[in-house]
Specification:
Structural class: alpha/beta
Domain ABC transporter: 11-246
Bound molecules: adenosine-5'-triphosphate
Membrane topology: Peripheral membrane protein
Strand content: 25-35%
Helix content: 25-40%
Number of helices: 10
Shape: globular
CATH architecture of the largest domain: 3-Layer(aba) Sandwich
Radius of gyration: 23 Å
Keywords: Antibiotic resistance, ATP-binding, Nucleotide-binding, Transport
Protein name: ATP-binding cassette domain-containing protein
Low-confidence stretches: none
InterPro entries: AAA+_ATPase (IPR003593), ABC_transporter-like_ATP-bd (IPR003439), ABC_transporter_ATP-binding (IPR050763), P-loop_NTPase (IPR027417)
Mean pLDDT: 89
């Protein structure tokens, strides 16, 4: 079958020298199989050190696998890296492909020439990217003067300038405020809908996965721990949500619906922390039940972090 990404039994080991302890081998990716059809959008998530970046480096031809087979858009990433670069767009959140001392616009000109885009094609694509990512206010500014959110939008534009068929984004929203995140997500959804690109995205933010991806692959210790829909992951895990309530007046105890667990009463009865399962209670009904008893001054809710979901997968031995 013709796949956008076809990685089978990928393994990558690093030899590390430990002072006084000789050499040891770290297996960053361990027999990982990852297959994406053309046009699919997949969130590739996992805890720190799970092996996501190493996998992406193997897919994009930066690292050679120790073992396993990999084809990306039908090409072998390392020997055919130059060819592949014309068809894929990559953003590594921590690294830049822009020229720091030049105005943002100049980076696009250089990249356009590197990709041998015709002046007409470059102008049309840039117009779309500038409008979609709202780049106009800072196109003339040197990249080093841009805020993180502005730079990241510039990075995404740089990666998408040559209209790649496959887009690989490593932590594209890290450190961005909510408005920048939403703007970036909206554009990525639109661009994908227009061009039918394949998307592989690593992130620590579940909202990125929810907005951008139909499928989620969870990696843990270099191996696939889950591969399916995000809804399927959440419902199969029954992860608890935590609600923190600050009351207008102190109370020793609240009457909680069955199955809702009291975690703590703090600040002399003002702050109450409770835990519940999303499958058993809706947050709205729970808040309504509590506000029928007391005045709530403030509240916040914590969703399970990706790290918690990953831990849960292993706790149940999946
Ligand atoms: N060049 C290297 N030399 C030695 N060990 C490495 C090297 N690169 C990665 N590792 C190790 O491989 C493991 C996987 O790292 P990787 O960067 O792929 O994880 P990650 O899932 O991308 O993590 P993060 O979310 O923190 O970016 C880690 O234990 C890391 O320390």
């Amino acid at each position: 079958m013709d796949l956008a990404i076809d990685a089978q039994h990928l393994t990558r080991e690093f030899t590390v020298r430990r002072r006084g302890a000789g050499r040891s081998v770290v297996r960053a990716v361990d027999d990982l199989t990852l297959r994406l059809e053309h046009g699919e959008a997949v969130g590739f998530v996992g805890a720190n050190g799970a092996g996501k970046s190493t996998t992406i480096k193997m897919l994009t031809g930066i690292l050679t696998p120790t073992r396993g087979e990999v084809a990306v858009l039908g090409r072998r990433p390392v020997p055919e890296r130059r060819h592949l670069a014309r068809e894929i767009g990559v953003v590594f959140g921590q690294r830049s492909q822009l020229w720091w001392d030049l105005p943002l616009q100049d980076s696009f000109e250089i990249l356009g020439s590197m990709h041998r885009l015709s002046p007409g094609a470059k102008a049309a694509r840039l117009e779309r990217l500038v409008a979609g990512l709202d780049l106009a206010p800072f196109l003339d500014r040197p990249v080093r003067q841009l805020s993180l959110g502005q730079r990241m939008r510039g990075e995404v534009a740089a990666a998408l300038l040559h209209s790649p068929r496959l887009v690989v984004l490593d932590e594209p929203t890290i450190g961005l405020d909510m408005i920048s995140k939403e703007g970036l997500r909206r554009f990525l959804v639109e661009d994908r809908a227009e061009r039918g690109t394949t998307l592989l995205l690593t992130t620590h933010d579940m909202a990125d996965v929810e907005r951008l991806c139909e499928r989620i692959v969870v990696v843990s210790d270099g191996r696939t721990a889950y591969d399916g829909t995000l809804a399927g992951l959440r419902s199969s895990l029954r992860t608890p949500r935590e609600l923190v309530l600050d009351l207008a007046e102190p109370r020793d105890a609240l009457v909680l619906p069955g199955g809702v667990e009291l975690l703590a009463v703090e600040a002399g009865g003002i702050r109450h922390r409770v835990r519940f399962l999303a499958e058993e209670h809706s947050a709205a009904a729970l808040i309504a039940a509590i506000s029928a008893q007391v005045d709530i001054a403030d509240l916040s809710m914590a969703e399970p972090a990706i790290e918690d979901l990953v831990r849960e997968i292993f706790a149940r031995g999946a």
